[in-house]
Amino acid sequence: MPELRRIVIEHLEFVRLDERRVVAILVARSGVVHNRILEVDEQLDQAELERAGRYLSDAFGGLTLPEMRGRLQESLAEERAAYDRAMARSLALGSRAVEAGDEDGELFIQGASNLLHSPEFSDIDVVRSLFRTLEDKRTLVDLLNRVLEGRGVRVIIGAENPLSDLARCSLVATTYGAGDRVVGTLGIVGPTRMEYARAIAVVDYLADGLTRLLTRA
Q: What's this model's pTM, rounded to 2 decimal places?
């Protein structure tokens, strides 16, 4: 999924759950919605939360999360007397809502069982090791971050893979974006004897489709 720190936030909303909890809803320009639950020190009614969301959207909408976080922190650091109490609370709430800006996007893995049909994975120990790696999403995110620093489709074959448990596999991957911003990655993991021309064409086609969809949104 798109990484939070890369997406442009268009709109913020806050919804009261109970006396001490508020849901912060961040709507990206692409239409992707992220949310997180905030613990609050004082009770805020829904009307005040709605005013805070409108103010923050108008003042800081159109920025990435790191940009928004920086602007909010600058505003909070200015002379407190320049704001009334409600505005100060809005800024503080907004600052907490965007603290997640450095998190990586969620990783989705589908079709791993298809690898079992390849003769390379007839050994149960090899399969166990492979699936253990595929379940470690943090490791896979790190791999994608390392190999997809540039543009275009990247192909890593067999032993070129920095993860030893994927030494019998190849990775075909690329980035997708929104306009000129890279926001996420997608790829195919398969046996080293995979049809590379077909895999590259599929990955490139999907990335282009996602980029056009997110840019149009």
A: 0.59
